[in-house]
Amino acid sequence: MSEVVAAPAKRPVIVWDLVLTIVLLVVMAGLAFVLLFFSFFLAFAGDSCGASSVCDVDRIGTGMLVAMILPIVVAVLALVAAVVVLVVKRLAFWIPLVGMVLMVGAFALGAAITASGVQPA
């Protein structure tokens, strides 16, 4: 007696999730470029250094780098995670949404570090 084992049913492609995830990934990439652009303006935090405030230029530089690099890293990780989840045919639209929130949080962290480097005299 031989048993016939049926292959497991494949998951169907969820079209609305695929389209929404792609649109949100494009929006997330745009947000990454906007945050990268805004991170260069954090250099202006040091404008008052020496005149009316005491500055830690290393901390300002560190905050700028965090605001530049960390949102891009989060965006890349969210992109990879979304693609992996789409390949296994699960709902993935939430991944770019969470990624965008984390990107803004990462930028805010970098801005806070930069601002902490400027102490009024």
TrEMBL record:
The keyword Transmembrane helix applies. Keywords: Membrane, Transmembrane, Transmembrane helix. The keyword Transmembrane applies. The chain crosses the membrane at residues 18-44, 65-87, 93-115. This is Uncharacterized protein. The lineage of its organism: Bacteria, Bacillati, Actinomycetota, Actinomycetes, Micrococcales.
